[in-house]
Amino acid sequence: MAVAEACRNLAVSGAEPIGLTDCLNFGSPERPEIMEQFAQAIDGMAAACRALGVPIVSGNVRFYNETDGRGILRTPTIGAVGLVARLEDVVTAPFQRPDEAVVLLGPTGAGLLGGSEYVVFRTGKVQGRLPSLDLEMERKVQALALELARGGFVSSMHDVSDGGLATALVECCVAVNPPRAMMGVDVLLPDVPGGAVAALFSEEPSRVVVSLPPAKLAEVRERAARAGVSLTELGTTTSRDFVVRTKGSEIVRAGLEELRDAREGCLVPIVGE
User: Fold this and answer.
1) Domain 91-268 adopts which CATH fold?
2) 0.85 exceeded by pTM
3) Cα separation of 220 and 253, whole Å?
């Protein structure tokens, strides 16, 4: 998943992933369970590199990251570099203008919340059944994202990762300067097992939020079908407010300034003013 997300971030920006570096941080390898974690991380990274056709060209390993016999959470960190063919291919995450279609590329997911920011926030623990990664689907989603960027079909793209669909949508609305450029959105959540909470906060991979002119929606839908990638219509961009609906009811309405302030101040509870 670390490899897939690093490459996905490039693809949705209009860049072809061409190389990776790693920073692998684990506890003491003298303990069998830590060495097993490390070995499985290497196997997983290798499988993803083969599936996506991207090599690891450098990296480092840090063992013995622990205090009083308690190791850190295993942390395979991936950095990636990509190649932009033309400046016109570059796509950014923020929504660009109102009245555009907002769609989700990739599976709507099984609604799994294991290991997510939501679970950590609610329980204080990293726990739960983890989502799986379909490497072939990941390859298809990334290839489609790059095709759409290079074809000029989309206004914005942003991958779904930490915080799930909810965070991705908020970032598309408010992660922009100057603040007057913020866009709202009105979306209908896809129906997934686990209900609205799972739809909002699951961090299942291989998903991309896209905005595009309505006139291009039919072409993008056709290209997604040819690529074997699901396309789910979520809603439209607006000039105000962040609105989330389920079938028959509105469950979230928040002002853009409120969301921007929350995002900009997210580190205050951790490190102070």
Assistant:
1) Phosphoribosyl-aminoimidazole Synthetase; Chain A, domain 2 (3.90.650)
2) yes
3) 29
